[in-house]
């Protein structure tokens, strides 16, 4: 009887979460249920389990970080809609199929979806949003290939760090070539990170974001 009552209360709680806003982004509600789903994903990506978090301050900080990422995702989805980005049913089916294959059986996949509060149609819609957000993010944060002069200047400015990362060799030309390759990769990574930060800041500055307290 107690177990039945607990299950009933959980169902009622989940139903009520769907009506409680965690935030609003340009008038679009991110409800608590959506946040709870994403919070679980966020913790899994960090190799954490929800049950392992005992510190309330840490829990709140991580949950706030997850909400912050979810707001960015909603802004990217809205930007994708404005940009006319279309994700086909075939792309969605392929992505869902890849995820399902990792579970080994359709039945296990269905159970995991249900545990996360999804049915197949809802998960397909979620996947479409994710793919569109990723595509517009990649487009907006694309950077030009740095020139050779830029790479060499970056190498000279970060010589010690780059030399420590490259393979040791007595051949100075090999060291130089390896160093320049590392410098190019590091510089591109730095430029991409800056571009992504710029995209998030621009979208935030032009948006109306209300966080529930």
Automatic annotation (TrEMBL):
The lineage of its organism: Bacteria, Pseudomonadati, Pseudomonadota, Gammaproteobacteria, Pseudomonadales. Residues 1-18 form the signal peptide. Gene3D superfamilies: Porin chaperone SurA, peptide-binding domain. GO terms for molecular function: peptidyl-prolyl cis-trans isomerase activity. The keyword Cytoplasm does not apply. It catalyses: [protein]-peptidylproline (omega=180) = [protein]-peptidylproline (omega=0). The keyword Isomerase applies. It comes from Pseudomonas putida (Arthrobacter siderocapsulatus). Its EC number is 5.2.1.8. It is an enzyme of class 5 (isomerase). PANTHER family: PEPTIDYL-PROLYL CIS-TRANS ISOMERASE HP_0175-RELATED, PEPTIDYLPROLYL ISOMERASE. This is peptidylprolyl isomerase. Keywords: Isomerase, Rotamase, Signal.
């Amino acid at each position: 009887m107690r177990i039945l009552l607990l299950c009933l209360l959980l169902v009622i709680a989940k139903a009520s979460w769907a009506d409680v806003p965690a935030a609003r982004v340009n008038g679009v509600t991110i409800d608590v249920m959506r946040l709870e789903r994403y919070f679980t994903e966020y913790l899994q990506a960090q190799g954490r389990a929800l049950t392992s978090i005992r510190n309330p301050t840490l829990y709140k900080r991580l949950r706030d970080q997850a909400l912050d990422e979810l707001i960015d995702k909603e802004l990217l989805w809205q930007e994708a809609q404005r940009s006319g980005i279309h994700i086909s049913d075939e792309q969605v089916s392929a992505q869902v199929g890849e995820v399902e294959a990792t579970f080994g059986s359709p039945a296990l996949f269905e159970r995991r979806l249900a545990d996360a509060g999804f049915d197949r149609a809802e998960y397909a819609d979620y996947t479409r949003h994710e793919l569109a957000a990723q595509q517009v993010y990649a487009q907006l944060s694309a950077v030009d290939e740095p020139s050779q002069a830029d790479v060499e200047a970056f190498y000279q400015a970060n010589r010690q760090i780059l030399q420590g990362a490259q393979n040791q060799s007595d051949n100075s030309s090999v060291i130089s070539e390896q160093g320049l390759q590392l410098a190019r990769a590091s510089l591109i990574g730095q430029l991409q990170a800056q571009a992504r930060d710029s995209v998030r800041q621009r979208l935030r500055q032009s948006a109306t974001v209300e966080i529930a307290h």
